[in-house]
């Protein structure tokens, strides 16, 4: 292997060690959850490889088990991963000189990979493009390996996994609480809870998601528009 690849790998690998434990554990949870819902190891392998967005992968299990609603899937994916839009803007300069690697770097940019690649102080003798590439690749390998192990582990165990369907609920509760605690103001969190509860009462469990997402997006956009107009009039 060319020396520049070895140098880049050696520089990248230690940065990803903390991610290894977290991604492997979460990946195993995802694989076991997918298996408990009737999806074999090939589904876990393909979804963890091709989607590579943990929260969306958990959601996908539910979408595949329900009536297919493409607009709801699209909107939910955008809402859950909209922060990646800002990640992409932040990484434009670093991705500029990476050649064809940038397409994989864009695809594989999850929260943890962005955090490492954005803040890492890359040694001058290490190729930046390959450093970013190996960080991204290693993190995805941890996740995919965990998902496959979890699926195989689930398949090897006798009996049903009672309560495994709660994994997705627990995941989103933790994500919500983390976001809530980091917010300067809680308007969007309270809005999401209120509108979702109201939509659930009006439209029922099977149909509330799309109206809730559209209503939340509309109210936030309207609030931003009013705020800008008030600022301009001062």
From TrEMBL:
Keywords: Cell membrane, Membrane, Transmembrane, Transmembrane helix, Transport. The chain crosses the membrane at residues 12-33, 130-154, 161-181, 193-222. Belongs to the AzlC family. InterPro entries: Brnchd-chn_aa_trnsp_permease. This is Branched-chain amino acid transporter AzlC. It is found in: Cell membrane. One of its GO terms (cellular component) is plasma membrane. It is a multi-pass membrane protein. One of its GO terms (biological process) is L-valine transmembrane transport. It holds the Pfam family AzlC.
